[in-house]
From TrEMBL:
Residues of the active site: C56
Taxonomic superkingdom: Bacteria
Chain sites annotated for binding [4Fe-4S] cluster: C290, C436, C491, C494
Name of the protein in its database record: Amidophosphoribosyltransferase
Keyword entries, A-Z: 4Fe-4S, Glutamine amidotransferase, Glycosyltransferase, Iron, Iron-sulfur, Magnesium, Metal-binding, Purine biosynthesis, Transferase
EC number(s) on file: 2.4.2.14
Molecular-function annotations in GO: amidophosphoribosyltransferase activity
Cofactor: how and how many bound: Binds 1 Mg(2+) ion per subunit.
Organism: Paenibacillus thermoaerophilus
Length: 516
């Protein structure tokens, strides 16, 4: 089943733009911002928020009747990991059924669409583009025909050596259908001379480098793989006799599945008619689970390597209070990822925690800012200060990171405009100084404020009365993973430039956002 465009989007787009534009300049501006099927398609990288962008989320089912519905609910729980596109591919005997489109899970799938995706095996994906453009052709799962039949694949992560492999394959005759680095895996498998799909997948996995979690579906197997460093999270669970796989355990809670264990670095799991087979394509290298999963990306109700995210973030706030106490009247967190750390900071210091900032949850991708003035002050469309809470108060504002600094400046000024007497900023991570190459969309290094400014210069730039970042040692202690492994088994390259894998030559200043 081929993917189809979303209705008559062009007519809808022009209708809304014309309705909301008050002048010729505004009409031109809105048309520039809404160039695809939805407003700021492609993540809103130039929008008012300079947050780190979610990666992707994957969900797999093996051996469950009506697997597509289970996959739908799993993807819905992982929606925070990618809001650009969603897709599901199922297997009914040897036949594949798939659908993918731009938009949220609830926008892409309805009851009829899910009923058409028959089968007891399914893989699904929610995407935020890091490598590859934001367009329908790059939406996953990717589905291809090759000498062994149909093959579907989806991934969370990024292959740092994909450009050089792609160039080599194209020079030898391969024709690529997408700009996604995930397609490299398809070509490596298809060109392999190995006698079976498992051997071909192992050979392909050994050729790619980076952070990745793969789900690969064939006519009779489901393959599950994690990179040798375990950079991207991937967990396994069971629902009755069915196996399920997800980027986060929160998806298991949604469907009522039981968590079994994390998929180990370098592991290859093979599921077929004979059940689950545990295998490896590589030995585990230096363990390096992404620290930003604990700080920001994963949902607070998820567990990573047995550690609850809400608890870890509260510990970060407690540690931050120990490292950078300040006399204040209230503590508040920037919604949503910083709330847990703010609670921890408040509990440690005894300063009351208050909801000083409110997030507007109804300014999704299709929101059209109605005037030039509001476009310039766009942060207030997504976030508001609670005046009666902060007015006349010394406020400690907890956030998880500072990327470019523009959002922090706007929020500090918003609190001041609401009457805050002082605004002290505390960040529950070290300064974010280096781009990520493993599946997080980050700006060029030169755009990361901490790469070129001292903490005092950043404080001045964001108009805060004081500023403090959590130390790297404090962060790792707060997460609480055992200390025997190097870096306690985390990747902290974004803070210390210590990448667990080689990164491409000449790319030291560009993150995944520049890998298109």
């Amino acid at each position: 089943m081929a993917s189809q465009p979303i209705g008559s989007q062009a007519a809808l787009r022009e209708s809304v733009i014309s309705r909301d534009a008050g002048s010729a300049d505004e009409l031109r501006s809105l048309r520039e911002q809404w160039t695809g099927d939805f407003y700021n398609e492609g993540s809103g990288k130039d929008g008012p928020f300079d947050r780190l962008r979610e990666e992707c989320g994957i969900f797999g089912v093996f051996g469950y009747p009506n697997a597509s519905s289970l996959c739908y609910y799993g993807l819905h729980a992982l929606q925070h990991r990618g809001e650009e596109s969603a897709g599901i591919c199922t297997r009914d005997g040897e036949d594949f059924h798939y659908y993918r489109n731009m938009g949220l899970v609830k926008e892409v799938f309805d009851k009829d669409r899910l009923q058409s995706l028959k089968g007891s095996v399914a893989i699904g994906h929610v995407r935020y583009s890091t490598s590859g453009e934001s367009k329908l052709a790059n939406a996953q799962p990717l589905v291809f025909k090759y000498k062994g039949g149909d093959l579907a694949i989806c991934t969370n992560g990024n292959l740092v050596n994909a450009p050089e492999i792609r160039k080599r394959l194209e020079e030898s005759g391969s024709i690529f259908q997408t700009t996604s680095d995930t397609e490299v895996m398809i070509h490596l498998i298809a060109r392999s001379k190995q006698p079976d799909i498992v051997s071909a997948a192992k050979e392909a996995l050994r050729q790619v480098s980076g952070g990745f979690a793969f789900l690969i579906m064939t006519k009779d197997k489901l393959l599950v793989a994690s990179d040798p460093h375990g950079l991207r999270p991937l967990v396994m669970g069971k629902l009755g006799n069915a196996y399920v796989f997800a980027s986060e355990t929160c998806a298991f809670e949604t469907i009522g599945a039981s968590y079994i264990r994390d998929v180990q670095p370098g592991e290859l799991l093979v599921l077929d008619a004979g059940g689950l087979h545990e295998d490896r394509f590589a030995t585990m290298q230096r363990r390096a689970l992404c620290a930003m999963e604990y700080i920001y990306f994963s949902r607070p109700d998820s567990d990573l390597d047995g550690i609850n995210l809400h608890t870890a973030r509260k510990n970060m706030g407690r540690q931050l209070a120990k490292e950078a106490f300040v006399y204040a009247d209230v503590v508040t967190g920037v919604p949503d990822s910083s709330i847990s750390a703010a609670i921890g900071y408040a509990e440690q210091t005894g300063i009351p925690y208050e909801i000083g900032l409110i997030k507007n949850r109804y300014t999704g991708r299709t929101f059209i800012q109605p005037s030039q003035e509001l476009r310039e002050r766009g942060v207030k469309m997504k976030l508001s200060a609670v005046r009666k809470v902060v007015e006349g108060k010394r406020v400690v504002m907890i956030d998880d990171s500072i990327v470019r600094g523009t959002t922090s400046l706007r929020i500090v000024n918003m609190l001041r405009e609401a009457g805050a007497k002082e605004v002290h900023v505390r960040i529950s991570s070290p300064p974010y100084m280096n781009p990520c190459f493993y599946g997080i969309d980050t700006p060029d290094r030169k755009e990361l404020i901490a790469s070129s400014k001292t903490i005092e210069e950043i404080r001045q730039a964001i108009n805060a009365d004081s500023l403090h970042f959590l130390s790297k040692e404090g962060l790792l202690a707060a997460i609480g993973r055992p200390g025997q492994e190097y870096n306690r088994g985390h990747c902290t390259a974004c803070f210390d430039n210590d990448y667990p894998t080689p990164v491409p030559d000449g790319s030291a200043a560009v993150g995944c956002g520049g890998c298109d």
